[in-house]
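Re: weekly structure request thread

Next one in the queue (529 aa):
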Amino acid sequence: MKQFSLRAILLATAVSLAPAAFAETPLDTLVVAAQIDDIISLDPAQSFEFSGNDVDNNLYDRLVDFDPMDMAAGFKPSLAQSWEVTDEGKTLTLTMRDDVKFQSGNPVRAEDAAWSLQRAVKLNKSPAFILNQFGFTPENVDQQVTFDGNKLILKLDQPYAQSFVLNCLASNVASVVDKETVMAHVEGEDFGNTWLSTNAAGSGPYALQAWRPNEAVQLTAFDGYWQGAPSMKRVIVRHVQESSAQRLLLEQGDVDVARNLTPTDVDGISGDEDLVIGTEPRGRILYMGLSQKDPLLSKPEVVEAIKYLVDYKGIEGSFLKGQFKIHQNFLPEGYLGASDENPWTYDIAKAKKILTDAGITSGTVKTAVRDIQEYVNVAQTLQASMAEVGLTLEIQQMTGAQVLDAYRARSVPIFIGEWGPDYADPNTNASTFAYNPNNADDAKLSYLAWRNSFAVPDDMNKATIAATIEGDTEKRVQMYLDIQKEYREIAPIIPLFQRIEQAGIQKNVKNWNAGGAVSSVFYRQVTKE
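Done, posted below.
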């Protein structure tokens, strides 16, 4: 029998029970160890971080969604049971499902769906750009997003590929919130954002019981969920920063799933008959952004040289072993238009020649890195290779929230981190890596290109937009291949690796699903034996 540490499992919750004897976690409770210090807000109109979206994916429903056990099938009806396109492709009408209730008991209406999209656009937080793509602005969204009875009506600024629009409506920012509940907590003109950042008002399979930043999130099952009550009556996600600590908790039986194990710890538990290793390809790209505000990094020769200063194979085969693979393109493998070309290799001599020919023999640059070991390790290997060509890299470690705040303020010279797709269409990455219509500081855009002060060439901006409306699939694939070819040659934002998630899981836990390449974690289908 494994030791059951009740105090550890119920950390940061208000639950109080008598101490337990030696036992595993309760059969109706799922306990997850993960790094969740990147959560800034749980408002789906604001949340744009991996861990926040994981939570929201279980608190809210969207108009369309993905089957957690068959992600390859693409989107499917959810709160919207059907839809039709009229007006030569410029109007999308979605019919809402009957008899669905929010966790408050209020009915889910087309009015709630319309208001949810309207408030996301008006709040204009980071993920609002997903909806802005269809011409929705704070000024016109009340006219462009309306409802009539049980129908939600979206008037787009031009015809788009239907899959593009529906994939966006499956994203977190399009979660449907309970208008009546949120309106009761509005403060001034915040549309309930302050309250909804730490509370929830959804119709999803779980309700928010508690969230204590950098400690834990607790969810409780919504027994009235329209797709059936979850088997796990409670889900507790604990913030455990170190892989070794996650492994220890897993081996002791204090957690059911450990999501951030290093390759060493994965190898360490691989022989435990009570544990299994879940392997799931993700859409996340580990990349390096070189701010074009930095005098040194703004030189094209430095950008080119750094692409040869990353020890791709060495990193893939050591501290990222089994968890990332080399991928030097912004579209993840498995997406329409993804490229398998990886032209850069680790070549100190070539990098040094590029710099010497440009008259660059020294220089200092800084990086702010989230205190996750794999990111820090990448930064340290880069630091060593840069030193060999006369460049100094100063590394500052921060929490996830601190790094993201600085990055969004365009004040991180070298950023090392991951980008995950917001929806299943290739535009999700093309529109952030290869699109930046306004590079001014006061534009305050969410695109990665803007965050790195990358003034995207006009032809690339136009090509990225054109790819969203191309109806011929083969032509659309070629457009994305062409964009990525040019991007590899000039961009200061460098895709390095694609994530392969390896989770340590108790053997009695079934149907664990982290969301595949296009979504976030799902808890409602998890069972225990």
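The chain is about 30% helix and 20% strand. The longest helix spans residues 473-490.
Next request, please.
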